[in-house]
Design brief:
Chain lengths: 521, 521
């Protein structure tokens, strides 16, 4: 997949390591040990009865409490479909919600700029990617949080282009060097699209700017019809302001995106103990209710429009009220949301990997490891925020992006699970080895066969003996990630936007990323 | 629980933090958010059909391939029970194995020196602890691996005494400063017992030395009868040398321990791809077969003697053949073994937390996080190697012990899971907050109520904002763990061995830990 990187990777590796790399690279997609879309669902944080009770509570919330702050066009569209508007709240009868869930879009792809990178969320199929609106770039060497820039977004995008276990790129940072909101929206989209061919997610600051960005996408796609055929960008849309209120600006953006053929991520980001109930089950109920209200809205605008069930409840540290994205409570919340999406058979997205740690340290590792593997095992279709994020979404770190690619690799290996077959039970191998053979499995045919098909090898995680590790300078994983980041950023310059397209974008829109930043210096 | 630490902890904490600590400390055991023995089983790495097929394969291995290298007393005991000995291999008919499994000891406690710290493995109840035979102590500041000493074992034990999420203390290191094997066995046992009141696990280098250590235990317990009533030490026994051979020395030790009333951990530590099949299912089959062979052996010696189903298969990095305890494959293997123990309804122990990282870095964090939470969610009763271990069991780190206590805390929170009740569904809280209340849950009665009962707060993991964190010196988690380790080691001197007992031990056995090392300097 990493075509653009191959030159760099080959140059770096020598001798034996290079041979291993080539053998791994030669594997066809369907026998690679891990890949996007592996089915999860081995872990069920909720019992079937628990799922049913949560669904009942959700329907009661929607019918009884409803959602406040609907804009007039939302009220109009939803009441036309059967919602009830009174005392400033839009209420959704049970039958309406159930009908919409039954008829809503499912099994639509999230397209990439090239079909081979398309994703197919749904069922229990698991994908990992970035997301966020961090305002800082974390420098793990100086330990500084500095304001994030447009160049940082472009750099993150081209790193994701070559990090195989990061399957989509939702913009993770806000370009703080672009105070003008039109420039901000246009350039965020441009930097993402120019940096990676993988599916991109972005937000828009106003409906007018969403419209402008749709026009950019028509240019990139080669016309509106081709864009609508394969929309390779989705809109991350906080359509609600929890608890149980619509976001007014986001609603207006939502309408433009849905009508413009852009898949929307219906994102409910309440925080348990602050803007959502402190009880985990209650936070799930509220998040599901808020997202289903959004789903009614979307389907009232354009029946069957593609929407992602984006239950993203966060957690508060109840001692301080501050967010705690790396906690065990968060891991449970996210996994439960992944399970609820499967109950409705809707493509679901939730957030994991949001460590509270400020640096890529051991805290960051365990918080990301626990939350990501649980989200994956639960069969969450789209796991956002899974790479690079720190400080509960306040800082993004390019070095962590590299390490997180390894975290996700191991999580995906766990999602893949254990095959139990006549071959894998290994009775013949045991007989060969123990009764007539050498008494070990080192050179056994089964071992050699499984070496590339069943085992995942990390990029920067180290498995050397202490002695070998000392001889190589006693580096920690951060030091190795710094080197790998530098290697990628100095060698990977994706050139997939055709020059004519790029020229048209630069002519018609205020593109600020300098051409020189986009090629080897 | 941490009685010995309270003074230290209180002195350290100031103002607001101190109030939080007191409120947390005041919670009765049964409403603490996490505790030893929380039931897992939410995650099932194997389908029911997969479990059944593995069991069938295990029975075929035991009946057909059998186990080599049985010592004469083992052959005698097992054949008397119905095993068949031919061509140098002991084979176990299916009915014999099934009978032994049905009659074997289950639901026995693992006693501590005080009853309130007893553990009750079985069912899907989860406990975490240390283990290992590391030969190095890791200094994460100088990044050096130096030979481990008796003092290191004692220090690790007294740290475990006050780290609430580490539930038992199996000796994690070998005292390399004691070359004499009798001194090694005697002092390892002494340092563990003097350092912590929690359940202790040790190994013995010969049956004679196992007998000598039993005599020490009689002294500590106040006589053999009282020892047999509440055996507070178990024997970690590698009774097999995989693949499918008994260990001769370990067998002789096993016989002494079983007859001496000591619970044994029947430990099969094959390495997939080297001494066990490379296929994960096959490695599980071999491990279960090896442990069940040990269970027959134990029950042939003393029917109903307490034994732990210790399936500990490890993983090789198949590129190099070296062990890879931090891999996703390891996480799956361990979790599957936890599930198999539940199938047999035997108290099961497996290993997780064995990172390949040489330092407490981000790699260490994610490898420990993933493997430990999966072992816990699978309902593994006794999760060994879960704290302090590095370099795939070659190095032990006291600073990691502190951080791992937090890893386990979050893993246990995940094991506890999500309560779905009328209250936790939170419909009334939503009505209060959204329809008539303030529009947020910050001061809501439910939030306050759940603050201590449902939420786990870490010891050294940090949840501050980047700004507050910078003001406090921009420390990473390792720096905070170093401070916490120093605080514990300078303040925690457990004095639970009565002076008369200690004097008798020192008079009768070659105890080497200086008295001065055991009190505040």
């Amino acid at each position: 997949m990493s075509v653009v990187e191959e030159g760099g990777a080959r140059r770096r590796r020598g001798g034996r390591e290079s041979k291993h790399a080539e053998r791994a690279a030669a594997l066809a997609e369907d026998i690679r040990p891990i890949r996007p879309g592996l089915p999860g669902g081995w872990y069920k944080p909720l019992t079937d009865a628990g799922v049913a009770r949560i669904n009942e509570a959700v329907l009661e919330v929607l019918e009884d409490i409803g959602i406040g702050q609907a804009i007039p066009s939302c009220v109009e569209a939803c009441t036309a479909l059967g919602a009830v508007y009174e005392n400033g709240r839009l209420r959704f009868p049970r039958a309406l919600v159930e009908d919409v869930v039954a008829r809503a879009a499912r099994n639509f792809p999230l397209c990439a700029q090239v079909p081979e990178l398309d994703l197919h969320p749904g069922g229990s199929r698991v994908h990992f990617g970035t997301a966020g609106a961090a305002v800082h770039l974390v420098d793990p060497v100086s330990r500084e949080y500095r304001e994030s820039t447009l160049q940082d977004i472009y750099d993150a995008a081209r790193m994701v282009e070559v990090l195989d276990n990061i399957h989509f790129f939702q913009r993770p940072m806000v370009p703080r060097d672009l105070p003008d909101p039109t420039e901000l929206d246009v350039n965020t989209l441009y930097a993402c699209l120019a940096g990676t061919r993988k599916h991109v997610g972005v937000s828009f600051t106003s409906p007018q700017r969403a419209q402008l960005c749709l026009e950019m996408l028509h240019v990139v796609a080669g016309g509106e019809a081709r864009w609508r055929e394969r929309p390779f960008v989705s809109n991350s849309n906080c359509h609600v302001v929890p608890p149980l209120k619509f976001g007014e600006d986001a609603s207006a953006v939502l309408e433009v995106c849905v009508r413009g053929g852009m898949p929307v991520l219906l994102l409910s980001a309440g925080q348990a103990g602050a803007t959502a109930p402190a009880a985990i089950a209650g936070a799930v109920v509220q998040a599901v209710a808020e997202v289903l209200a959004g789903l009614v809205y979307v389907n009232a605008l354009v029946p069957g429009a593609p929407a992602i069930f984006g239950t993203w409840p966060f957690v508060s540290d109840l001692r301080t009220g501050s967010m705690s994205g790396g906690s065990g409570e968060q891991a449970l919340l996210t996994a439960a949301c992944g399970q609820m999406a499967q109950f409705y058979d809707l493509p679901g997205g939730s957030a994991a990997g949001m460590t509270d740690a400020k640096l890529p340290d051991m805290q960051s590792g365990f918080e990301k490891g626990i939350t990501e593997v649980m989200a994956g095992l639960a069969g969450t279709n789209l796991i956002y925020e899974a790479a690079g994020m720190h400080a509960s979404l306040l800082g993004f770190c390019l070095e962590s992006l590299v390490i997180d690619n390894d975290v996700i690799g191991q999580a995906l290996r766990c999602v893949r699970g254990i095959e139990v077959t006549e071959d894998s039970l290994s009775l013949e191998a045991m007989r060969r080895v123990c009764l007539t053979g050498p008494g070990h499995y080192l050179g056994d045919a089964q071992t050699i066969h499984l070496m590339q098909r069943d085992y995942v090898y990390p990029r920067v995680a180290d498995r050397k003996s202490p002695k070998e590790w000392e001889e190589l300078g006693s580096k920690d994983v951060l030091e190795r990630a710094i080197e790998e980041k530098q290697r990628i950023l100095s060698t990977v310059f994706p050139g997939h936007l055709p020059p004519a397209v790029d020229a048209e974008l630069r002519a018609r829109f205020p593109v600020r990323l300098p051409r020189e930043a986009m090629r080897r210096g």
